Amino acid sequence: MSTATATAPRSPAPGRPPATADRRRRFLPRVGHWFVTPYVVFLLVVFAYPLLYNLWISFHRFYFTAPGAHVPSRWVGFANYRDVFADPVVRKSFVNIGIFLVINVPLTVVLALVLAAALNAKLPFRGFFRAAFYLPYVTASVALVAVWSFLFGSDGLVDKVLGPLAPDPSWLVNSTWAMPVLAFFVTWKQLGFFVMLYLAALQNVSGELYDAASVDGADTLRTFLSVTVPGVRPATTVVTVFAIITGSNLFTEPYLLTGGGGPADASVSPVLVMYQKGIEQAHPDFAAALGVVLVVLVVALSLIARRFTEKGD
Amino acid sequence: MTASVAERPTAPRSPATAPGRPERAGLRPARLAVLLVAAVAFLFPFYYMIVGSLQKTPDSTIAGAVPHPSNTTGADYSQIDSAIHLGRSLLNSGIFTIGVLLCTLVFGLMAGYALARLRFAGRSSLLTSLILVQAVPFQLLVLPLYVLIVRDYGLGDNYLGMILPFAINSTAVFVFRQFFVQIPAEMFEQARIDGAGELTVLWRIAIPVARPAILTGVLLTFIGPWNEFLWPFLVTKDQNMEPLAVSLANFTSNLQATLVANPTGGIMAAAVILAIPAVVLFLVFQRHFTSTHIDAGVKG
């Protein structure tokens, strides 16, 4: 900040006067600080402090209190974490998320890239297709979940179309199918966003590579695999990591679509357990520890995915 | 998140256009076929939502997917209106969303402008935090925020408590910043030489040219609170404070079904009403909402 005042009175260098007035103003301290203060306060209040507070809660025996009341919280070390790992529902929820990600992430990457590649040409109704793909992404989960439960409910349209092929019991109350249906739902809802990401990435793939492939006589599939797929690798990393983060934070879908993680916990998710244990059953310390575990896993998984997708050949 | 593409200037260019290479014969019908199948898969549930909201009695047969005059009624809308106080829920959703939009536009534009055009200590670390924050899943913050806002500050059943965690949309701040960075410095020169303060420069010079970025920011920000379920669900106990997404979810899961003759039709009707504002806003802004902006918002 002291350098700012030192440079300010300097006279304009001959030949390039326009930069100085701008620079002098920009180096003035304070103005910028004033402008970002509300946002910085927001970040501290809504992100930094709650994150630290969550960590603190996870190491204490913590009780909900009424506003203004103070109940001392006892340090309990890793006791909450031990409870989390010993809980069978928590374990089940992590297995479920594993199933979810194994279906959701590859499906998202493949479908989004195929649709983006198909869209990447001069086509009639291109704007219509883009809008259609994006529509579920901008629409509330609650509204979409409502239609999906109508579609996939017992004796719903999907069952009617499939006839004898429909699973019994029906999708959402079937312990084998509940989690895959949630994975399909989330893939469908988020796909448009990832299609647009890939579409943007495809603009950076050099046309010369396609020309070269065409000269070499490569067919469409070959070109797609050897030019398009490697060309959008950075975007694939972003898509994978985003899909992992979104998927690991599943809440609304198991809460509403499968009626609170049913049948018999077949579709519970870690965040749903956080809500049930932490808020419904008033064990915030348990939920805080579960939150920390979830984040550590998500970060680890994202780093692995990143390494995996960024690996050159 | 990907370092390789960070800081790439993302000019407000026109929607991605196809490379001008010759198309292999026969590929075009294949493309169109793939896209058409996908469009049907994406749009059918929306169509089915509308059909279901107009049925007298729920008809999930294959024939029921086509509206039939003898089974069509507007009663589902009036039923759900009285069952979940539709007007009040819409008002709550509106206040929640407009509160977030106002905070994001006022404070977010200021922050975006400062991060793009002003020098101050800590600017680069703030820019890094801005990007990191977008990767923090909200669900992780839910428990401590619930303890703080509802239990400690007593802001349950309060619009302020509802708005606070969403008040400034970081993705929108980032979109604003990316846009302001690209405005040529000369545009600001004259105003500054004339002695205009930074607030005047922002208001008179930067904001008028930033319309596409602002529209993108509005759409991005709008769909957050309007569609949000978990947070307002935790903050509200009083039915009169529930936004529409929460009213609809509570209606669905508590099966207040006995209150109405056709619960499925009522749920579909409420779902249509919940979906319409975001869908309309998206279709209207679509032109401005190019892939470039999403790209800018995500890549960091």
TrEMBL record, chain A:
Q: Compositional bias (Low complexity) at which positions?
A: 1-10
Q: Does the keyword Membrane apply?
A: yes
**A Pfam match:** BPD_transp_1
Which parts of the sequence belong to the ABC transmembrane type-1 domain? Answer: 94-305
Give the UniProt subcellular location, in the record's own words: Cell membrane
TM regions (residue ranges): 31-52, 97-119, 131-151, 286-305
Q: Which PROSITE patterns does UniProt cross-reference here?
A: ABC_TM1
Q: What is this protein called?
A: Sugar ABC transporter permease
Q: Tell me what organism the protein belongs to.
A: Streptantibioticus silvisoli
SUPFAM superfamilies for the chain: MetI-like
Q: How does it sit in the membrane?
A: Multi-pass membrane protein
Concerning its family, UniProt says: Belongs to the binding-protein-dependent transport system permease family.
Please give the superkingdom of this protein's source.
Answer: Bacteria
Give the record's keywords alphabetically.
Answer: Cell membrane, Membrane, Transmembrane, Transmembrane helix, Transport
Q: Where is this region: Disordered?
A: 1-21
TrEMBL record, chain B:
Which organism's genome codes for this protein?
Answer: Streptantibioticus silvisoli
Q: Which Pfam families match?
A: BPD_transp_1 (PF00528)
PROSITE patterns named among the record's database cross-references: ABC_TM1
Task: Please classify the protein's predominant subcellular localization into one broad category.
Answer: membrane
Q: Name one GO biological process term.
A: transmembrane transport
Does the record's keyword annotation contain Isomerase? no
Q: Which domain of life is it from?
A: Bacteria
Keyword Repeat among UniProt keywords: no
| Keywords (A to Z) from UniProt | Cell membrane, Membrane, Transmembrane, Transmembrane helix, Transport
Official protein name in the record: Carbohydrate ABC transporter permease
Q: Where is this region: Disordered?
A: 1-24
- Where, per UniProt, does this protein localize? Cell membrane
Transmembrane residue ranges: 32-50, 95-115, 127-147, 159-180, 201-223, 265-285
Q: Domain named ABC transmembrane type-1: which ranges?
A: 90-285
What the record says about family reads: Belongs to the binding-protein-dependent transport system permease family.
Which InterPro entries is this protein grouped with? MetI-like (IPR000515), MetI-like_sf (IPR035906)
Q: Mark out the compositionally biased spans (Low complexity).
A: 8-20
Q: How does it sit in the membrane?
A: Multi-pass membrane protein
What's in the GO CC field? plasma membrane
- Which residues are in coiled coils? none
